[in-house]
Amino acid sequence: MAMSKKITSILIANRGEIALRVIRACRELGIKSIAIYSDEDVRAVHVKRADEAYHVGPAAPAQSYLNMDKIVEIAKAAGADAIHPGYGFLSENENFPEMCDKNGMIFIGPTAKAMEITGDKMKCKAVMKKAHVPTVPGSDGIIEDVEKAADVANKAGYPVLLKSAFGGGGRGIRLANSEKQLRQEFEMASAESRAAFGKAALFVEKYLQRIRHIEFQLVRDSHGNGRHLFERECSIQRRHQKLIEMSPSPVVDQKTRDRIGEIAVRAAEAVDYLNAGTAEFLRDPEGNFYFIEINSRLQVEHPVTELVTGLDLVKLQIAIAQGEEIPFKQEDLKMNGCAIECRINAEDPFYEFAPSTGAVPNCNIPYGPGVRVDTYLYPGCTVSGYYDSLTAKLLAWGRNFDEARVRMRNALDEFTIDGINTTIPLYKTIMDESNFIKGDLSTDYLDRFKIFDKMNEDAKERAKGKASAAVASILLQSEFVKKGGAQPAAKPVSKWKMRGTG
Amino acid sequence: MAMSKKITSILIANRGEIALRVIRACRELGIKSIAIYSDEDVRAVHVKRADEAYHVGPAAPAQSYLNMDKIVEIAKAAGADAIHPGYGFLSENENFPEMCDKNGMIFIGPTAKAMEITGDKMKCKAVMKKAHVPTVPGSDGIIEDVEKAADVANKAGYPVLLKSAFGGGGRGIRLANSEKQLRQEFEMASAESRAAFGKAALFVEKYLQRIRHIEFQLVRDSHGNGRHLFERECSIQRRHQKLIEMSPSPVVDQKTRDRIGEIAVRAAEAVDYLNAGTAEFLRDPEGNFYFIEINSRLQVEHPVTELVTGLDLVKLQIAIAQGEEIPFKQEDLKMNGCAIECRINAEDPFYEFAPSTGAVPNCNIPYGPGVRVDTYLYPGCTVSGYYDSLTAKLLAWGRNFDEARVRMRNALDEFTIDGINTTIPLYKTIMDESNFIKGDLSTDYLDRFKIFDKMNEDAKERAKGKASAAVASILLQSEFVKKGGAQPAAKPVSKWKMRGTG
Amino acid sequence: MDFKVGDLAQLLQGEVLRTTENNILVKIGGKEHTLRLLKSGTNEFEFILDNTFHHARILQSGSAEVKLVIDGQPLTVKKHSKLTEVLEKASALGGVGGGDRNLTSQIPGRVVNISAKAGADVKKGDVIVVLESMKMQVAVKAHKDGNLKEIKVKQGASVARNDVLAVIE
Amino acid sequence: MDFKVGDLAQLLQGEVLRTTENNILVKIGGKEHTLRLLKSGTNEFEFILDNTFHHARILQSGSAEVKLVIDGQPLTVKKHSKLTEVLEKASALGGVGGGDRNLTSQIPGRVVNISAKAGADVKKGDVIVVLESMKMQVAVKAHKDGNLKEIKVKQGASVARNDVLAVIE
Known about the structure:
The complex is a heterotetramer, with two copies of chain A (502 residues) and two copies of chain C (169 residues). In chain A, 37% of the residues lie in helices and 25% in strands. Chain A is built from 17 helices and 22 strands. Chain C has 169 residues and is mainly beta. Chains in contact: A-B, A-C, A-D, B-C, B-D.
């Protein structure tokens, strides 16, 4: 299915920073960019930067950015010959590529078939086992019999997890440290499951502790060429949400990179993957890697890979989508320096990450050597509660981890966003934190090292340093009111001359 | 003279984007940054970002950024143990390093002695000839005798230039295409010179046509280690002012790079150079390189080299200044991709580059993949007429020249600066211009390819494309005045609802 | 006047000593400081205090308390006097201080669950309503003990910041 | 009304047809366009015209001529009528149009040279004063033929934009 139609216009079925990211790639390639916007996004930056922008519907995603019919209708009316889904929204909906296909448009992403397999964890696991891709030890499917469960657990090694097929999001998961405990828990879990769903259906899986989340960026073209673009370590997470990503991982050397990268490419081949995707692995403290899933889309954190490879993944996606071959061999790629990304979310890290939305009257986006920002923020913009909380991706590149880290630390200081709370203070603490500096990461990093306590201490310390300035501000304000009356002018008062005579 | 004192605080004897650049390097290294500001710069960004900022004097440079006594006094009072001069101002004044030295402060730059030699073109040329660095063929010094002049000209080959020792800035230069013409011109020039200055004093130099300006970035430490960091081509100039710089040069292959780079390092050794500097060469169409001078400072265009080498030149300067050895060998360096810089000057390219100063109520600084900006601009800042016209350096990196070029083109579109005229429209034309794309550059590029005519045509073309929108704006304004009365609100009128109902 | 900055135990006494053409001389915590004003508005100030630049944005300014963001750092400064000894609790998500009967929303969002029934007695901290914003669910809890007189929102409704969600008496 | 945009030969007729809740229907150069207003102020407008975003800043708005910057592109639009047939020359550096006797500076700068003598007859284009700004020298030329009545500045003086440098009658 090697199409080779030159793409001349792309509808971007997304919003925010990723829409802007795709627009920039289009402009570099001389491709017309077509944006869509909901009522909430009329003044969004992607509307301003696209060549064309069409209204898609009300604010609610179901009626706008998830509205396939409407989006395809707009794409046809605007004469788009391809659709880029970004991430989130329709990007992993297997019906969407099919619908694009039916309407004679190229979907810039994997095929519906590959999406269907990667979207079904058990099916995908089965395919991977066949392709000798190491997965987390455990049952191949549902186990209804306790003897079988004990058998699987003995093979995988204790501790193991018992997961209900009807659970999800951490619910219905039980830990067993021994066979005895397994048998007890299995009976209880089965009974629970039977009571709730009329059926006992459990998986058994090896319980991995102090794990790292390490993923490999993949690209594969319609001619069957697959490449991995090295790893990203994304262990710093809160409630399974990635916060910080980096490449290289502090625990991946070139030999490991080649070995796991080769496995990742094999995983992509096993599902006949097309375009850009990511193979996610867990790594245990012994250095074992276990495949967990393929994310069948461009990921939020793709710029990390762009900074260390020099590649432009969105332009590469477009090239692959129009039937071109990947223009480099695996051995042409070389890891250059280190890149770190912090996700600047509109959430209050001091208050349980509560969403923080509203007008942003002003913001200062950092720039300078080694700094890259992908964002939809601009002075006067609005952060909407209808969509996810990612407002910006702040990236720093350095010749090595430490240079990237100090650049990130400085850029975090330069990044100011008025009007909303963001996760910036958390990242300031992490960049200065000794275990992060040592590279001692794991998915429980935040809890293990009491990062939130440290963040609170840091904030207090910073507040202390600003105490005199704070009092000075209040003195200024009352002087200001005194001299200027009840309605002081918005401009600097002339009484206190701004410029001296020397 | 290998000092090895760890620098803990640096006074930056400069302003604008370069002051901010040095502040960022200080912050990454944990060094206290100390800014100075004139009356004109009270609200400048370098004042806001530095750890400390001291008032240095009135707006006029002589009383502020050139006031050595005052600057050293501030540095002592603030406890600075080093001074970074940036570029321009005091950066190439050989008295300044001496004064720093006397006051126990490290000058981050070359020694006074090296500066003295590089600052005297004829002296420097003599040193270079001794070191077998190829210079522009011509007389070693002043020639008073026409026979000697003819002799030198015959050796150098015609055409040659006769330059008056008392001239400068293009004045008093005569072209001779043959010996006969030389003899005539020499007599006339001598007579002129005698009449004006009481003395005949002429240089003879080979006249190079259609030349390229190609320079090599140098660093040399106090242990005698010298490295070149590849070339930058800076041929696109207007009246000897560089406008666009790039690396690599389209006409420099690796062999040439190694060969001329080695010569550049030798040039640095010949003057016992210290810290960062640049060896400038002219290249004729036959591929000959002629050394012209060493710029004994960090240059405006240093970020071009940073993007293709991954090095941080300011941090490297600081390391060298505190007596460290350069931490890499020549063979460790590898040219990575291509970088282009456009100097965004506050000058009107449609009106003879007239200076354009004043308030900048708003600006949009471009960002995104491969884009770097070094600037002092921010919304609400002021562009002063007291200092030079460089407001921003816009840089684009790409895996190859063409990727860098299209990124630059897009970033130029994204870069808006309200309130002043800038050279941005000129660069838009150049990025799209076929000879630039082919790499057919020379110092007369702008005239040779009638770039200003093209720029005017492009502007007209763009205006044409905006005609309907312009009329629409005027209709909106009159509707606005009609509905809102004489004093319309600053906010969007509610009559025309911003958000629809779907 | 005395100021209590954030959680700092120490009170800082602050006063303006005099203003000259370029500078303002202030005394804070017993130390004299030179202040150069660069920009001033009702709520926004830029100044150099002893050779260091600061940017302050006043968010809320009352007779007892000022909330401001200084150099990106949010701070609450209490003006200290006998009257302000009884301090309001910092307003927390979903709750408001004092004796107010209204339970308001601190975030805009959509009501995805109503967890309590009108008429019921509730305790401070009980979940009353669950809102969704930015794909996250946020529980709004009772701000005081009392009787849940009324629930003002319906499932699926959109609420704005500061909307009253329920009345507790 | 008819509009002449920049150097375009063609005149564009423009009118508002009607406004609906979300959109404004306009007719420009014979074609109908749908306009969605996003932001409006006295001098600044953001709108989507036929699915393309535009940002306009009106710099000067007169009855005969409007100067604006649209999407970063400066443009002069002349409102066409008999009265405006006599168009002013675009104001050029160092000169002003019309019969004004004052020669003003279009840039701020320092006077580095006075190139003419008071009392002398000058021709349009003669250099009167040389200013320096941003390390560049800029010649200010006579804006008309006449007698140089007075030179208002001295060598070394600083001048602001629009300061009168000399009087030519």
